[in-house]
Design brief:
The chain is an alpha/beta fold. The protein has 3 domains: 1-66, Alpha-Beta Plaits; 70-136 and 156-254 and 306-345, Rossmann fold (3-Layer(aba) Sandwich); 363-428, Electron transport complex subunit B, putative Fe-S cluster (3-methyladenine DNA Glycosylase II, Chain A, domain 3, Orthogonal Bundle). The protein contains 16 helices and 11 strands. Strands 6-5-8-9 form a 4-stranded parallel beta sheet, with helices on both faces. A hairpin with a 2-residue loop joins strand 2 (34-37) and strand 3 (40-43). The longest helix is centred in the middle third of the chain and has 17 residues, at 168-184. 44% of the residues are buried.
Length: 428
């Protein structure tokens, strides 16, 4: 799945044969990572943050998400799967939470765990981090890999504000590796730990984690792919139900707003934001110090949170409703967190400081870079300023950059080819 010519791994592929060059993907990319040239789209790997907007926007299935095949679990003696809290919202209400979880176990795993198991523990370490780092305001939640990469690409000044703690599924992975190695008397390489994830950003985070000391997981499966496999065996399980531990109260972690509500206390003020355009607006305001009154801001790139991920199968609003229902009707199995607290005290859940991901350098020579900037402005005055994307670049400014960098020409502007419509308007 990784592009060998690229420094960065991405869980998105373009099928050129399916691409019509319609530019729908260009218009929705928040980091201007996509261009269309010769009626084919391509992605700049340095700019892409794996938000999945382009996957949702492409009506021709030319941009497809990638995840690992299920058969990779055969490479390990002991196989564990950790399920995202958004997964159980994908099923219709006639499928019980316990049955869906049991069906996942029967796909060939020795053990099944849930993100929902450790969300209460996560809330406690977030509060602790906020109180210990009062010089940083606001602290930005780091559970969404697409948001973390977005900050690296477009808001690098905010990197110190990120919460430097692993996300719940990584915390659980770290804990389970130690636990299973001791209980099963296995070497680390014999234990395979995999995630069922709702979006391509989480697949990317497994294969190229930002800030982690090492690759914690061994693979990531699309929620949609696992959903399809599970549907095939659910009928038999529902006819012969088994007793399996569930954690319904923690499922709401998948929903936008819940994490902020849980962390919010009398001395901690929080804000929750979802949708990549809203996230970018808030990050701009944070950069300008308009939101210093908040202690903690939770940012999710997908609509309604992780239930809106492009690897899911259900409408995010329907999935949200189902998860809320399960959470209200169920009760968590009691979780003992002594070992988690011990690992946390030893610093095992902290992550390395992140670095910026430079997306464009006009020239290493500052004088030449200034000259190129002048040329960009010159070309910009020639372009119509409509930002229509018909040229294959997202905006007229982006086209001017592409021209100066030798990646496009003025002939790519279809408006100039046909004559500027503004000139036609002046005649009336």
């Amino acid at each position: 799945m990784n592009n060998k010519d690229s420094k960065y791994f991405h869980a998105i592929q373009i099928l050129e044969d399916n691409c019509t060059g319609c530019t729908a993907c260009v218009r929705v990319c928040p980091t201007e990572a996509i261009r269309v040239r010769n009626r084919k789209a391509y992605i700049d790997p340095n700019r892409c943050v794996d938000c999945g907007n382009c996957v949702d926007a492409c009506e021709f299935h030319a941009i497809i998400p990638s995840s690992d095949p299920l058969d990779i679990i055969e490479d390990y003696k002991y196989r564990v799967v950790i399920i995202s809290s958004s997964f159980f919202g994908q099923f219709t209400e006639d499928v019980s939470y316990a049955a869906a979880k049991q069906a996942v176990l029967q796909l060939g795993f020795d053990e099944v765990a849930e993100e929902a198991m450790v969300t209460d523990f996560m809330v406690s370490i977030i509060r602790e981090y906020i109180r210990k780092n009062r010089d940083k305001r606001p602290i930005l939640g780091s559970n969404c890999p697409a948001v973390v990469r977005l900050i690296q690409v477009q808001y690098p000044s905010l990197l110190p504000n990120l919460l430097h703690q692993e996300a719940p599924m990584s915390i659980l992975t770290r804990y389970l590796r130690d636990k299973i190695a001791k209980e099963q008397k296995l070497q680390d390489e014999d234990i395979g730990i995999f995630l069922i994830v709702p979006c391509v950003a989480h697949v990317t985070a497994v294969h190229q984690p930002e800030g982690a000391y090492k690759h914690l997981q061994d693979g990531a499966f699309s929620a949609g792919m696992i959903y399809g496999r599970v549907r095939e065996i659910l009928k038999d399980i529902q006819n012969h139900p088994v007793d399996i531990e569930t954690y319904p109260e923690g499922l709401t972690w998948a929903l936008s707003g819940v994490q902020a509500e849980l962390v919010d206390t009398g001395d901690i003020r929080t804000l929750s934001v979802n949708g990549v355009e809203n996230v970018m607006d808030i990050l701009s305001r944070v950069e300008d110090h308009y939101l210093d009154q908040y202690d903690y801001i939770v940012l999710r790139s997908c609509t309604n949170g992780c239930v809106g991920g492009c690897l899911n199968v259900e409408n995010p609003f329907v999935a949200m409703s189902r998860i809320k229902k399960m959470s209200k009707e169920g009760k968590n199995k009691e979780i003992h967190v002594e070992e988690l607290e011990k690992l946390h005290a030893e610093g095992e859940f902290s992550v390395l400081p992140l670095t910026a991901r430079p997306i464009m350098e006009l020239d290493k020579d500052i004088k030449k870079a200034i000259q190129k900037m002048k040329k960009i402005n010159e070309f910009l005055t020639m372009l119509p300023g409509l930002n229509c994307s018909a040229c294959g670049s997202p905006t007229c400014y982006a086209l001017a950059e592409d021209i100066v960098l030798g990646k496009a020409t003025l002939d790519d502007c279809v408006v100039l080819k046909r004559g500027n419509p503004r000139d036609d308007e002046d005649e009336y």
